[in-house]
Amino acid sequence: MKSRRNTLKVLGGGMLAMGLSSVLPGCGDKKKDQGGASKGTGEMTYRVNPTTGDRVSLLGYGCMRYPTLPDTDGVLDQEAINESIDYALEHGVNYFDTSPAYCRGQSETATGIALSRHPRDSYFIATKLSNFAPETWTRERSIAMFENSLKNLQVDYIDYLLLHSIGQGGMETFNKRYEDNGILDYLIEKKKEGKIRNLGFSYHGDIAVFDYLLQQHDEGRVNWDFVQIQLNYVDQKHAKDLNPRNTNGEYLYGELQKRGIPAVIMEPLLGGRLASLPTNLSKLLKEKRPDDSVASWAFRYAGTPEGVLTVLSGMTYMEHLKENVNTYSPLLTVNEEEDHLLQRIATMMLEYPTVDCNACDYCMPCPYGLDIPGIFTFYNKMVNEGTIVTDNQDPAYRQARKDFLVGLFREVEPRRQAGRCTNCGECLDHCPQTIDIPAQMEKIHHYAEGLRRNTLS
C-alpha cells in the first residue's frame, strides 16, 4: 500500500484556490476569460486529499446509472461498462463510486469486473455500507455487507468507504445502523488495519445526524477523511426552498471547510434538471458561452470550490463521459460574474413546479411496477419545456396536450404509469429527497387524465 501512495501522491498539484462566492470571499478565476468554449485542451484537473495525499481526478465516475442490455429488465451491459471505464482511465479519471445498492445490486460486481482489468494503483474505489434495510442492521449482516463489497470489487482494501446516506430516519435510525451494533467502531478499526484507506459518509436528510458526526470528528473519536454532500448552483442556497427537509449546500460545505475535510460532490446536475433547463434560462447561458452545453456550467460550478475533492457524475452514455472529461481537462473555474448569473437562474428555477427527484432509483423496484424515476423525469422535462398547461382554453393547449400524452406513452409503459400507484407508501422511507411520492403520482395522474378527457379548466 506504501508504493500505491507514492505512485499517486503529488505535492500541491491541482489545488485551486477558489471558492463559491456564498461560502468564501472571491469567486473568480484569475485568468482573463472572454467567454467561448470551456472544453478541455489539456490534462485532467486533479485535487489532493490532504489526509492521504491521494491525487484524485476532479471528475469522479458515479456507478449508479450503468447502461443495461435491451429487453432484459435491467441486466447491465458489461461490455459497454468496460468500454466507458477504459476511456475514463485513459483520460485521467481515477475515482469510481459505487454501492451494494446501486443498479439493483449489480453495480459493485460490474465495477469490479471492469476495473480489475487495470493495475490496482491506477484507480481509487469508493463504495458504501448501504445497510438501509432493518434486516441489515445487525452487526453480523453489516460486516457481511462490507466483506462482500471487497469480494465483488475484487480488491483487498477499499480506498474510500462511506457510511451511506446518513440522516434518513434521523438519529434513531442512525444509531440502529451504526452505533448500537458497534459498526462505526468496527469501520474505524478496519481503517487502522488498512482495509479502509479513507473513511467518510454521505449525507441526506436530518441535519442533526450530519452535525453529530462532525462532533465526533471534533472530539477525536473518528477522523473523517472526506464527506459526500449534494451541491449544485440551485441547492447551494435553495435546497430548503425545494424541500424543507433538505439542507442548503452552503451550510454543508462551510462546515466541512471549517474542519479542512474534503468534499465529494453528488448531484451536480440536480438529477439531470440542470442539464435541461427551460428555454428562456438556457438562453441566458448560451448568450454568455455559446459553445458550452448547459450541463457544463453545472459541472464547472460544482468543481470550482477549493475544498472539493471530486465531482461525481453517473454517466450512462459515452457522449456524457467525453463531454465531462472535456469540461475538467482542465477545469475553467466559475468567475464572479458567472456565479451571479447562475444564482439568478437558480432563483428563477424556483418558479417552475418540478418534482425534486434526482433519479437515484432508491425507490425501485416498486412492488406494483411503477417506473417512479421515469415518471418524474418525464414530468420535469415537460415542465422545463413549457408543455404543462392548466386550461383547455389556452392557445397552446392542443399542442401541449399532444406533446404530453404522446411523450408519456413513449417514455413510460402504460402499465408502469402514475395511475397504477396504490399509495402503499413502501417507497417513502427510501427517498433521499423525502418526496411524498404517492401524492406526486396522484397529481401527475390527475393531470394526465385531465388531458385525456379534455377536462382541464
Descriptive overview:
By secondary structure, the protein is α/β, with parallel strands linked by helices. Helix content is 40%, strand content 11%. The chain has an eight-stranded parallel barrel, surrounded by five helices. The chain has a two-stranded antiparallel ribbon with strand order 1-2. Helix 2 crosses helix 3 and helix 14 (372-384) packs antiparallel against helix 15 (397-411).
List keywords for this structure.
alpha/beta; 457 residues; eight-stranded parallel beta barrel
Share of residues in helices: 40-55%
Which class of secondary structure composition applies to the elements?
A: alpha/beta
Shape: globular
Distance between the termini: 67 Å
Give the helix/strand layout.
Elements: H1 2-8, E1 46-48, E2 55-57, E3 59-62, H2 78-90, E4 95-97, H3 107-115, E5 124-129, H4 139-153, E6 158-166, H5 170-179, H6 183-193, E7 196-203, H7 207-218, E8 226-230, H8 235-242, H9 249-259, E9 263-266, H10 279-288, H11 294-303, E10 308-313, H12 318-327, H13 336-349, H14 372-384, H15 397-411, H16 437-453
Parallel strand pairs: 3-4, 3-10, 4-5, 5-6, 6-7, 7-8, 8-9, 9-10
Antiparallel strand pairs: 1-2
Concise summary:
This protein is an alpha/beta fold and 457 residues long. Helices cover 40% and strands 11% of the residues. The strands form two sheets. The chain has an eight-stranded parallel barrel, surrounded by five helices. A two-stranded antiparallel ribbon has the order 1-2.
